[in-house]
Amino acid sequence: MAKLQLDKGRIVQKLKTREALILKANKLLKEGNLTSIEQAAKEAGISKATAYRYFTKLDALKREASLQLKSEKPEDLFKDLPADDLIPRLERLIDYHFNLFIENENEFRLFLSSVISDSLLDNQTQLRGGRRIALITEALLPLKDAISKYEFDNMVCALSLVFGIESITILRDLCKLDNNGILENWKWAVERITGCA
Question: Is 175 within 8 Å of 166 (Cβ atoms)?
Fold first, then answer.
């Protein structure tokens, strides 16, 4: 159990380091001045070696930094909603992810493709960016003290399967759903996972 908590702590720290690198790359990209991974690493106060563990190619860093420009921070997405009212928070979570992925589907598919390709090349566990887990956790705050940590963590993981380009790809390509069908399936899945029908 202690090792599991330690591993989770390391993963959280790695995600924070990766996020810092992406944020600096994002800033440089907005300024039209992102020329190298080393440059973004220096701006973020991260060693070159550490930066290359997350991104081996500048194109991959640029792609993820450009997608980050389009995503909301958890504290911003729900700031106007009550912290104790689950239904509107889930509705906001669904609408936000659906619109983000539908409006930028090609970019997200390219990003997913590059992440999978890179993972095959270096045989290491790939830490993916994005704010999916943080957004889901924030949306579920009204349940945090109402259910066990085990149930809460499993609910976050189950919802992370719903909200992603992976889900859109499967529902569109394999299940042959159109946008309306994808949205309806997401709503159905969220209702069953959270028990909020």
Answer: no
